[in-house]
Backbone:
């Protein structure tokens, strides 16, 4: 991971936890939160292993957002960093 | 204002759509539609627009619910017989979605009330069952520069078109003047298959949602016709009529007109 | 000559007017039908004189009043 991305991730605008949600509300919550951000701002999302980690990053990418990093928390959850690249 | 978690859930299937998203859903929540006629067409339009979260829905109809309505007017129930259609429709819409606002007009539209009525709404649905009302709605919407969806259904056929002010031909470009009373059959005399209102009314609701969210291409400049028995949809191009009496180069109609009602339609 | 009428292309005799086509096609309530030829409306007063030409496409637009 480049220094630039690390620097960017240090400037997280908003954090959400979607581990209590199931499909499709996982993506809906992430999408709704990112729509409230300005272009270039970063959202940190805590999500579960399995279906959420397979689908949420992919759906956000399809929506035109930039997935910066996916970190395995080794407790059955992941932390996803997404930059708003698209309105 | 951000949507609540309940709203995110209620409208999740809209929000997931790239073309709509939270932004489009908020537009729907902040928009208003007037449905004229709470019958075969108005029923599905009202249900779908309420479910879609259109913030304010107006519904206009002078009639009461009758047993013969229930074969197709799915917004009314057997228990509603005898009630004003607008009250019954309002109850059904609020039962689906209590967070919207519903205005009722228990009245016929006429040259004297239509402009005040349509002024308060972003989009108008013509769900009426008679030509005087259809011409009245067209002329009023052209004069007030309001977009609207026109539709008609009879037997196994239906058709619709969308008018966008200044951008597309109007109903009167196609049909110059109402036919004489009782010259052309209406569904009261000729019958109509129940699901026809569902097909065509749902398309009207779709046009309203597309217009309000600004997505896709509207059915402007075209008449879409549906023949259920042949299972055939046709999209017929509609030219402008530069001599149109209301939207043409030298309009003769400068205010809405009340035409004579067919005896059987009253 | 070939005409495309309501989306279907067929052979027709020469020198056919809109009025004659309306009769030929058994159009319902012919007094109230609107007709477009090649995406231009033909005024109802011109139905009797408007001659169709090979390759024309003709649409009939009908009043549909129901909604009830």
Residues:
């Amino acid at each position: 991971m480049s220094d630039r991305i690390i620097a960017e991730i240090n400037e997280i605008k908003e954090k959400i936890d979607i581990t209590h949600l199931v499909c499709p509300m996982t993506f809906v919550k992430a999408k709704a939160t990112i729509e409230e951000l300005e272009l270039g701002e970063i959202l940190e999302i805590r999500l579960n292993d399995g279906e959420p980690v397979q689908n949420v990053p992919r759906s956000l990418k399809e929506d035109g957002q930039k997935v910066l990093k996916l970190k395995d928390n080794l407790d059955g959850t992941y932390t996803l960093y997404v930059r708003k690249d698209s309105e | 204002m951000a949507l609540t978690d309940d709203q995110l859930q209620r409208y999740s299937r809209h929000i997931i759509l790239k073309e709509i998203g939270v932004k489009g859903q908020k537009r729907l929540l902040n928009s208003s539609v007037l449905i004229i006629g709470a019958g075969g067409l108005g029923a599905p339009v009202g249900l779908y627009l309420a479910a879609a979260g259109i913030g304010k829905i107006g519904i206009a109809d002078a009639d009461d619910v009758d047993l013969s309505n229930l074969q197709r007017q799915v917004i009314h129930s057997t228990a509603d017989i005898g009630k004003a259609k607008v009250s019954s429709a309002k109850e059904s819409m609020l039962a689906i979605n209590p967070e919207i606002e519903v205005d009722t007009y228990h009245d016929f539209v006429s040259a004297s009330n239509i402009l005040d009525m349509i002024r308060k709404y972003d989009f108008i649905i013509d769900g009426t069952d008679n030509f005087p009302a259809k011409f009245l709605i067209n002329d009023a919407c052209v004069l007030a520069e309001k977009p609207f969806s026109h539709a008609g259904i009879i037997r196994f056929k239906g058709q619709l078109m969308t008018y966008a002010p200044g951008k597309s031909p109007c109903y009167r470009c196609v049909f110059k003047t109402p036919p004489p009373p009782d010259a052309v059959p209406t569904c009261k005399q000729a019958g109509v298959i129940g699901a026809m209102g569902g097909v065509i009314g749902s398309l009207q609701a779709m046009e309203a949602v597309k217009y309000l969210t600004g997505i896709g291409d509207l059915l402007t400049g075209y008449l879409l016709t549906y023949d259920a028995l042949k299972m055939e949809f046709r999209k017929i191009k509609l030219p402008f009529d530069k001599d149109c009496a209301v939207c043409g180069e030298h309009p003769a109609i400068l205010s809405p007109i009340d035409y004579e009602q067919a005896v059987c339609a009253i | 000559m070939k005409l495309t009428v309501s989306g279907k292309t067929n052979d027709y005799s020469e020198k056919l007017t809109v009025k004659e086509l309306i009769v030929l096609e058994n159009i319902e309530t012919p007094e109230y039908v609107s007709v477009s030829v090649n995406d231009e409306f033909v005024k109802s007063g011109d139905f009797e004189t408007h001659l169709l030409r090979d390759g024309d496409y003709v649409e009939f637009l009908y009043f549909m009043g129901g909604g009830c």
